[in-house]
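Most newcomers find our protein records easier to grasp once they have seen one. To make this concrete, we reproduce a full record directly below:

===
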Amino acid sequence: MLTNEEKKQISQKIKKVEDRSSAELVAVISKSSSSYWFYIATFSLFIAIIATIIAMPFNPSAIKLFQIEFLSFFTSFFLLSRFKTPILYLLPKEYKYKIASKKAHEEFIKLGLDRTETREAIMFFVSVEEKFVQIITDKNIKEKIEDSYWQNIVDEFILDVKNKEFSKGYIKAIDSCSKLLIKEFPIQKDDKNELSNEVIEL
C-alpha cells in the first residue's frame, strides 16, 4: 500500500510537527476493515444456484448437479475472497463507512491513543478497499478543535485515497493541521514522544 520511502516521508512529517507541538500524531492504514465473509458466502451461494439452474436443462445426474453447485460455490468464494471489488460495489457506502469507522475506533483504543499522558493523540486512519478516511482525536484535542474542522481535511484526503495516492493524502492532511496544532498545543519542556512516528500498516 505504501512504499518504504513513502512511510519514511510520512514519519518525518509527523516528527516535524511533534518537534513543535505536544500533540501525538499517528498514521494508520488498513487494506480492508472487514473480511465480509457473510456477503462473500451469500453471493457465492447465489452464483452456485444460478449455475445449477443453467445446467438443469441438460439433464445432468444429481451427482453432477451437486458437483456443479459445489465447484461454482467454492470457485466464487475463493475469487471473491481475494478480489472483493464486486461485493464492495454492491454494499451501500453508508454501511461500508460504518464498518470502517468501527475499525478505526477499535484501533484507536488498541494502539493506546486514548491513554497518553497529555490526552492529545490524533489518528489519521485509512481503509483502502472502502476508500474511507477518518481522523480521530483524543479528549484534549476535541476540547479545542471541533470535529467539523477535521471533516474538511478528511474530504480532501478521501480524494487522494480514491486516486490511490495514499502518501500524498497523509502529507497534505498533516500539513493542513500542523500550524493549528503548534498554536493550540505548543511543545512543552517536559514533552516526551509517547507514540511511535512510524506508519502502522494493519
Remarks:
- DSSP finds eight helices and four strands in the chain.
- The longest strand covers residues 24-30.
- The mean pLDDT is 94.
- The CA atoms of residues 16 and 183 lie 14 Å apart.
